[in-house]
Amino acid sequence: MEHDLRLRAAARVIYDNVYPPAATVQFSFDEAERFGTVEYRQAVGAAQDAQSVLAAQHDQLFFAAIL
């Protein structure tokens, strides 16, 4: 994910919100990314899902504005 900085930033925000520092998560986001933890993979999946939904909404708004 190093090549997609926006997707990585979204995954970090999701990770930090779902697994706050006070929680029982053993790793920071950077460590979770390095080790490929299940929590990291879940955050990335959520970020990818959000990206798809937001892109679809943007396309709908764009085409509605054209019409």
Description:
This protein is mainly alpha-helical and 67 residues long. The chain is 75% helix and 0% strand. Helix 1 crosses helix 3. The protein is elongated. The chain starts with a helix and ends with a helix.
Instruction: Name the beta content range.
Output: under 5%
Q: What is the count of helical runs?
A: 3
- Summed over residues and divided by their number, the pLDDT gives a mean of 80
Basic shape = elongated
Low-confidence spans:
none
- The percent range for helix content is over 70%
- What kind of sheet is the major sheet? none
Which characteristics define this entry?
67 residues; single chain; 0% strand; mainly alpha
What is the strand and helix layout of this fold?
Elements: H1 5-18, H2 29-35, H3 38-66
Helix pairs in contact: 1-3
Structure in a nutshell:
With 67 residues, this protein is mainly alpha-helical.
